[in-house]
Amino acid sequence: METSRTQVVIIGAGPAGLLLGQFLLKQGIDHVVLELRSADYVLGRVRAGVLEEPTVRALRDAGVSERMERESLTMRGFDLMWNDKHVHIDFGLVNKVATVYGQTKVTRDLMEARLAGGGVTHYEVNNAQPHDFDTANPWVSYEKDGRQFRVDCDFIAGCDGHHGITRQSVPSEQIRTFSYAFPFGWLAILADVPPISEEVAWINHTDGFLMCSLRSKTRSRYYFQVPEGEDIKNWNAGRFWAEYKRRLPPSLAGKLVTGPALEMSLTPLRSSVSTPMRFGRMFLAGDAAHIVPPTGAKGLNMAIADARRLFEGLKQFYAGGRDATLLDSYSDDSLGRVWKAVRFSWWMTNLSHKLSDNPFNREMQIAELEYISQSVAAQTTIAENFCGLD
Ligand code: FAD
Ligand code: DHB
Predict the structure, then answer these.
(1) Is the CB of 293 under 6 A from ligand 1?
(2) Contact call for residues 16 and 303 (beta carbons, < 8 A)
(3) Which of 191, 261, 277, 293 could disulfide-link 331, Cβ–Cβ 3.0 to 4.6 Å?
(4) pLDDT (tens digit per residue) in 133-148
(5) Is 177 in contact with 284 (CB distance < 8 Å)?
(6) Gyration radius from the chain CA atoms
């Protein structure tokens, strides 16, 4: 086994791991990133696209915002639609905006900065495994190109997503996971066609939710609700467009431009929160600790917020005095924020999706949507939560 030593081992090179790595790189804190997949695979994963203001600030502070400043779009609100009605949720109510900039671009910017800054990332590692994180001497083992490695460290950052190894390595009596799965998912398409609207539209349709979103003035991201168990193999772009157009309100259907799919995917709608987020010298961040349904565009923003908060703790620790105050409060501080985002995503999902065949549920949704359209207070609450609670 080949051995080495560093200060922090980051497992996972998604947004959480890469942002934490970028902050550590800038701060001169020695670390290494271990990633299961290849860099191209990670870059090819199309996911989120809406950034909250604290996320934008974090990317600026990490020194990776140059392309984002140039290419992103500003989102000033969105439309909630049902039957032939709609209400505009204006982010001006909370003096904020959101930023449209794809997760793939965030990942690319972070990877490029890491390469330029000389950060060490090992891609395509197998069997990464955290050890002895309940002691002062944690270490991580992994395999690469048929060779075995051991890295001793001060801390392990579990940034390895929902299916990662770090959370699964915690003894079951030390962790509690709260989960809820909606009985449906989102079918998504990414296509180089002009978006129906420059503002995101959320549509509650009797046959299920649909959303019009975008990545740029020429690239659209559209979703609609499908029952659980749906198989992506049964869908092609033609069938997607036909069903999407059928559910669109006539005012939007006429504007729909279709085209070949750059990507299609199926996302289950689930919430899951694991507590605590710290186990001795191992910290979980991002999807490794919690996932939300995409409704509300919170997942990426939560991952970035965790990574930033974890960095603040590590920075304080290494500043000289080995002060662990911020590391000690990492879990409680993060979970306070996480639960509120989980609640908002869950609530927005309940408001906008076909929940069951019981028409009562839809009447409740319509009553709530009518109320929202008449109440600036309700619209303000939505804007405040969508833009991110400070
Ligand atoms: P991830 O991005 O999952 O990164 C974890 C990394 O760890 C991955 O690169 C993975 O390969 C690596 N890894 C896993 N296991 C190991 C291991 N054993 N060893 C080493 N490395 C490992 N959020 C939104 O806000 N809006 C959306 O529209 C949206 N759509 C989504 C669609 C899909 C299909 C998915 C899966 C998620 C979506 N999300 C969305 C959520 C958002 O993309 C995630 O919240 C975000 O990627 C979390 O970042 P992360 O760094 O915590 O985890
Ligand atoms: C996206 C946009 C949203 O407003 C949302 O709630 C979920 C996803 C998107 O563009 O991917």
Answers:
(1) no
(2) yes
(3) 277
(4) 999 999 999 999 999 9
(5) no
(6) 21
pLDDT value, residue 198: 84
Tell me the two tokens of residue 326. Answer: 């911020």
Q: Is 160 left (phi over 0), alpha (psi -120 to 50) or beta?
A: alpha
**Cα-based distances in Å from 73 to 101, 148, 340:** 7, 45, 26
Instruction: Determine whether the shortest distance from the Cβ of 36 to ligand 1 is under 6 A.
Output: yes
Q: Which two tokens stand for residue 240?
A: 């997607």
In the reported structure, the alpha carbon of residue 287 is separated from the centroid of ligand 1 by a whole-number distance in angstroms of 6
Query: How would residue 232 be classed by pLDDT, with cut points 50, 70 and 90?
Result: very high
Tokens of 250: 């006539």
Q: Is the dihedral of CA 342, 343, 346, 348 positive or negative?
A: negative
pLDDT band per the 50, 70, 90 thresholds, residue 46: confident
Pair 52, 98: CB distance under 8 Å: yes
Q: Could you tell me if 287 and 14 are in contact, meaning their C-beta atoms sit under 8 angstroms apart?
A: yes
Condensed to tens digits (0 to 9), the pLDDT of residues 152-173 reads 999 999 999 999 999 999 999 9
